[in-house]
Amino acid sequence: MNKNLTRDVYIREANRLLGQKLFQEAIRKCLRAISLDPHHALAYTIWGIALFGAQDLDKAAIKFSKALQINPSNARAYYNYGGFYYHKGNYEEAAVCFEQAWSMSSNPKYLQFWGLTLLSQGKYDEAYLKFEELNCDDPRAPIPRICRCLIYSCQEKRSEARVLFEQTLAILNPTQTKAQIVHFMEKDLNLTQKKIEVVQDPQQKEYENQKIVALRYYLNKILDIWPE
After folding, report:
1. Which of 133, 179, 187, 200 is the most exposed place for a label (fewest CB within 10 A)?
2. Which residues are CB-contacts of 95 (< 8 A; sequence separation ≥ 6)?
3. What is 1-106's CATH number?
4. First to last CA, the chain
5. Taking the CA atoms of the chain, what radius of gyration do you get in angstroms?
6. Is the pTM of this model over 0.90?
7. How is the chain split into domains, by residue range?
8. pLDDT at 176
9. Please, are residues 147 and 199 in contact by the beta-carbon 8 Å criterion?
10. How far apart are CA 185 and CA 205, in angstroms?
């Protein structure tokens, strides 16, 4: 078989294994692909994602950096590099990566995480615009609507938050979206709680605390109000 075809088979297998959360197996496939082509950006990107899934974050960042050295237009590498910085609480670098990813590929999740990064920095108006843009593209998308509620709550605009939340309940089908939103919010809540333990800057700690209060409030409301 042609060497490039064999390389591409390994990369496809690695990508499939990622979807199954078989991270070590995916890493082995990436290593085989790179042994055939040491300068293949996608192989390094998938390798980094697998390392990230295996909780080896610093090594994952090295792979994302290598992928971007090879191909500076690699939106997927930028997005996952942004995820690394977001987990580390380095929101400024995360925002740069998510913005770069969004500029290269109009994938809604790139814009969503850019908005979350701005929310975590306390840049509420900028974050709101990102989530509003997402809802303009898809008015029924649940997570951008909930994130706008979070922003209003962090700004103590409770009446605006209540109106938007009631609109969200009226528009969305809870049986289809409840599990998705709860998973998203629980994941972000756990991550934010971990960050607040290591944050030193008082202002940043306050932003994190405001976000935790808002996340808990809406998570509880969703669990109470929306049926299974």
Report:
1. 200
2. 82, 114, 117, 118, 121
3. 1.25.40.10
4. 51
5. 19
6. no
7. 1-106, 108-228
8. 58
9. no
10. 19
- The single-letter code of the amino acid at 33 is A
Strands (DSSP E) contained in 69-185 are none
130-153 pLDDT per residue, tens: 999 999 988 888 889 889 999 999
Instruction: Dig out the tokens for 113 from the structure.
Output: 């995480």
Tokens standing for residue 153: 């709550």
Q: Which two tokens stand for residue 154?
A: 């962090």
**Residue corresponding to tokens 């809802």:** 135
Domain at 108-228: CATH code: 1.25.40
Cα–Cα distance measured from residue 31 to residue 50, given in angstroms and rounded to the nearest whole number: 12
What is each CA distance from 132 to 36, 54, 111, in whole angstroms? 45, 34, 11
Q: Say how many C-beta atoms besides its own lie within 10 A of residue 55's C-beta.
A: 9
